[in-house]
Amino acid sequence: MKKEIVLATDHAGFDLKENLKRYLIDNDFHIKDFGAHKNDSKDDYPDFIMPAAEYISNNEAIGIIFGGSGQGEAMAANRFKGIRAAVFYGGPEEIVKLSRLHNNANILSIAARFVSFEETIKVVNLWLSVDFEEGRHLKRINKLDS
Fold first, then answer.
1. Helix axes 117-129, 94-101, angle to 10 degrees
2. Would you tell me the crossing angle of helices 14-26 and 117-129 to the nearest 10 degrees?
3. Domain at 4-145: CATH code
4. Where are the domains of the chain?
5. Which residues are annotated as catalytic?
6. In what order do the strands lie in the sheet with 61-67?
7. CA count, 13 A, side-chain hemisphere, 1
8. Band of the pLDDT at 142, cuts 50, 70, 90?
9. CA pair distance 104, 116, nearest whole angstrom
10. What are 82-140's pLDDT values in tens digits?
11. Among residues 43, 115, 48, which one has the least CA distance to residue 77?
């Protein structure tokens, strides 16, 4: 059974979120969309990211969030207990893999101004395919979550 995937963004990532949402639905993923639900240049990312992160912290879900740089969005998400948001703004895909393998990232924050839809699909598929390695990394995750 595929996990529920939570999506959230502000205006900067709106189009990328909507395109990824269609792709994920077409590939039989269950989606919970926290918005934005329209492209409004005056919206603020905490209004969408924080409820999404809170939901993920209280449920067996993972998330993909978007923003211009992805940085502020990850910072907002990481304020919640149990959230481990990793940022991807292009570059080596190994970073995305390691975020799951070693850090058990449960949110991937994508920099919409720097990552194309094609690259997003590629890294999301990679991110979703990697499981947490546990082992020596588990005690570190437990320290973060305590």
1. 30
2. 50
3. 3.40.1400.10
4. 4-145
5. 73, 102
6. 30-33, 4-9, 61-67, 107-111, 85-88
7. 5
8. confident
9. 24
10. 999 999 999 999 999 999 999 999 999 999 999 999 999 999 999 999 999 887 888 88
11. 48
